[in-house]
Amino acid sequence: MTDLSGRTALVTGGAQGLGEGMARALAAAGAKVAVADLQDDQGAKVAESIGGAFVHLDVTDEASWDAGVAAAVDAVGGLDVLVNNAGVEITSLITELDPADVKKMLEVNVLGTSLGLKHGLRTMRPGGAAGNGGVIINVASVAATIAFPGIAVYSATKSAVDRLTRVAAMESGQLGYGVRVNCVYPGLVPTEMGAGLANDVAQLGLFESPEAAVAGVVELTPSGRLGTVQDIADAVVFLASDQAAFVNGVGLPVDGGMGM
Ligand SMILES: NC(=O)c1ccc[n+]([C@@H]2O[C@H](COP(=O)([O-])OP(=O)(O)OC[C@H]3O[C@@H](n4cnc5c(N)ncnc54)[C@H](O)[C@@H]3O)[C@@H](O)[C@H]2O)c1
């Protein structure tokens, strides 16, 4: 069992879905966890159930990062692990793209992750408010590694998360921050987002039904099933732990082989 006792963590988008699972798994491994989200009631419930703290944090907003990270460091006693998990997916054929949707995905997935890296590194590096180094885990997607219809812009934003991860690891190493930076590429998990995607691609006529879309994904997956919240959370706990002490600047597929 991985032991994270004595460690502190912050998970963005931690009120539901994969982020909630990551917050629960980090807490189960012994970490004190700050759950950060736009959804105050739901986020506070999750935080309370794991003996952690809730902070309101909009990842697209710089002032919100300033206040949210300070509140989290105060509430859980530091920052050793940051998971940049918050993300949005808006399904569309390329020919039907709405600029507002494109901007929304760029804002949450790319700007949000960039600001998370900025504030995480500043907080964890020597002299920062936490200052002991640590680990940042970004949540990309199998969509960054394959072509799947209906999610062109989402995939582009997740490829951006992948590249942000590599450069952040390089800068952190070169400048002596003592922070490892990695990302995960989750496969399809039937959270609100994952189930919504299956419905959307069926609606667009790309598959006969949501069930056919899921079957299509499973067929492309050597492990022969969808992912679970626990599958992704376990990988995040591993990357957060000292067992991954020499794992840096990589993307870990957690997709049953779909992206190979
Ligand atoms: N579910 C999947 O199949 C899947 C697969 C690969 C990658 N991912 C990625 O995993 C992450 C979590 O996905 P999920 O399935 O749990 O999604 P979800 O929609 O169920 O949950 C997303 C959470 O992020 C929060 N959020 C959204 N915008 C935010 C903002 N501006 N600031 C703070 N919080 C914000 C939401 O309130 C919500 O709690 C996302 O980055 C997603 O792209 C999901």
Automatic annotation (TrEMBL):
Q: Keyword check for NAD, yes or no.
A: yes
Q: What are the protein's UniProt keywords?
A: Lipid metabolism, NAD, Oxidoreductase, Steroid metabolism
Keyword presence, Oxidoreductase: yes
Q: Identify its protein family.
A: Belongs to the short-chain dehydrogenases/reductases (SDR) family.
This protein is called 3-alpha-hydroxysteroid dehydrogenase
Which organism is this protein's natural source?
Answer: Nocardioides luteus
